[in-house]
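Please decode residue identities from the backbone states below.
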């Protein structure tokens, strides 16, 4: 039986991938460069520093990775604050039920902590999470398992006793590399993601039922 649940954020708690795609395309346009939604899908689940380091190798981006991220992140936070986004259907109920049963809850996201805290504050769900980890705070982001190992450590639960909810190929690879059970959530807005490595695949968060 699982002793803890660890959630990815983008595409699982909030349907924010469209914001990420839009802003990343706009950031490239800011530098006079073009990239498509489909070309960005491979980066879903990865951290900003890792994504922009790869793009700097592939495109003539003149600024440093840090400078690019500062432009990108400010735009993303602005769009998030102005949006009418609400938690993905079923998330509020699942968090409430886990909390009612005193099951530890963690969050392991590739987003920067600034963006994570903006989302949790907007939805007023900070109180549910006993551990929050950004992929930028560990040695390697997803698909490496570091962010999930750290979340489990902070929760005080062995990795093999954790269940992860993920919407991306990179995230599922990270969870499985950490030795955790993983539920793959099909979110069409996350692009064409191969979730086949997950232990179970759901098309709605409401399909996730806790044992009696």
């Amino acid at each position: 039986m699982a002793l803890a649940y660890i959630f990815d954020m983008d595409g699982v708690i909030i349907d924010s991938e469209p914001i990420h795609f839009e802003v990343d395309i706009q950031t490239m346009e800011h530098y006079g460069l073009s990239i498509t939604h489909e070309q960005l899908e491979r980066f879903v689940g990865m951290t900003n520093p890792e994504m922009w380091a790869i793009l700097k190798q592939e495109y003539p981006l003149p600024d440093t990775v840090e400078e690019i991220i500062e432009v990108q992140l400010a735009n993303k936070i602005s769009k998030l604050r102005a949006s009418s986004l609400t938690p993905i259907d079923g998330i509020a109920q699942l968090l409430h039920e886990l909390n009612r049963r005193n099951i530890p809850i963690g969050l392991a996201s590739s987003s920067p902590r600034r963006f994570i805290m903006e989302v949790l504050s907007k939805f007023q769900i900070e109180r549910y999470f006993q551990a929050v980890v950004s992929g930028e705070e560990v040695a390697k982001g997803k698909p490496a398992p570091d962010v999930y190992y750290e979340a489990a450590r902070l929760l005080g639960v062995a990795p093999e006793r954790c269940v992860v909810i993920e919407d991306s190929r990179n995230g599922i690879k990270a969870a499985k590399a950490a030795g955790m059970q993983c539920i793959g959530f099909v979110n069409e807005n996350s692009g064409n993601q191969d979730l086949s490595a997950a232990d179970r695949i759901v098309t709605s968060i409401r399909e996730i039922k806790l044992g009696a």
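Observation: The longest strand covers residues 105-109.
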